[in-house]
Amino acid sequence: MGMITAINTGQIMTIDPVLTLAQWFSPAFPVGAFAYSHGLEQAIAGNDVTDPATLQTWIEDVLQFGAGRSDALFIAAAYHAAPDELKIIDVRARAFTSSKERLMETDLLGAAFGRIASSLSGDDISGLCYPVAVGKAAKLATLPLELTTSMYLHAFVSSLVSVGQRLIPIGQTDGQTIIQTLAPICQDIAMQGGSLDDLSSTAFASDIAAMRHETLNSRVFRT
Predict the structure, then answer these.
(1) How many Å apart are CA 104 and CA 123, to the nearest integer?
(2) Domains assigned to the chain
(3) Is 90 exceeded by the pLDDT of residue 193?
(4) What's the first-to-final CA gap in the chain, in angstroms?
């Protein structure tokens, strides 16, 4: 596992990549992920997700067949891309979003992540949607790709679980059980690798919920 270096009081110190990624994907990192439900708010309002079991199934489907898997591929593509290829990958990632709100979500999360990561590293990570920005930042920081992707997906799961805790609602123990149960899937997706030739999405219920959320009358989340 690679290490990154930092300057502290005139001395060079090494920082474990896990700590850097924990900071990036912590709720304290100001990307505003708490404001987005990825269509889950609509699914709860429509009684498609009503309890811990249906919440876990919903998130698992999104992970394996929807944005989880596709975001992993875009992170990897950005990680391996030459500088002149990043814009093409970013355009493709935006085109792959299934609705107006999904596009807004990845755009604003990417802008916020890029702004803070650029300030911390001194590198330019601006103008990219979220998974592409993460892939580029991880490459510049020489962070392990699989670890980056695993922790990105784990944070995604945690964010969706928090939506369920607020809206269904479910308890803290149920929420943590779902996160623990889905953690190996996050790792498995990260280890699968692949290229943009492998892009697909069959999480149709999630995509439709995200579209319908645009007209939901009373809502807490932006997507």
Answers:
(1) 24
(2) 17-213 (1.10.4190.10)
(3) no
(4) 36
